[in-house]
Give the backbone structure.
Amino acid sequence: MPTPAGGPAAFRTRADEVYAQLKRDVAEFSLVPGDRFTESEISERLGVSRTPVRQALFRLQQEGFVEVLFRSGWRVLPFDFDQFEQLYDLRMVLETTAAHRLCEGIRPVDRQLLDALAGIWLVPGAQRSTDTARVAQWDEDFHCSLVAAAGNAEMARVHRDVTDRIRIIRRLDFTKQPRIDATYDEHAKILKAIRANRGDQAAMLLRAHIETSQAEVRKITLHQVHLAHAAHRAART
């Protein structure tokens, strides 16, 4: 599976590991908006001291995922839909720009990347995955790989940050089978346009693809979040 270019993994502290795990907990609906917890609970669950837990939580607080409650621990913050709208707008600019750059002159290494992506998305219907978590990750990798392949490291860095911040919304979108089917169809069209060096068409298809996902975000309700939370807990029992 192709992954976004990012170089070798950097050394990770215990706080980094706790931070990454808590972000996974949010993205996978183990923790949902409104959930409350204490540093001691997280420390016990992850088998670490409270110091890296506190460091990770302060980092998540700065990024708008959690807030500290006076003498009551921590709380996962509600969704900020205005911020999600802005992030989707930024994502659209980055990805359509990348599509044009790819079609202006694709390097051999980029051709190999597109071939690898085609091996996932340009498959017969019977070979499509029904594993929602896997498809959600493949979807992220698809979009990040296209931007990284465009050759602008700063653009790729900003795009990875946007991807990180909208992950929970995209994962919620992938709890519905029709959206998975649509993603396969739309990714296939985007890839075919890029491989044919049709930049305008690829950008148009990407814009429509992202706008559809953005429209789904506006339909999200707290009830859907808790259904995803219940499904996650059931899958672990």
Observations:
- The two ends are 29 Å apart (CA to CA).
- The chain has a mean pLDDT of 86.
- The chain is about 70% helix and 5% strand.
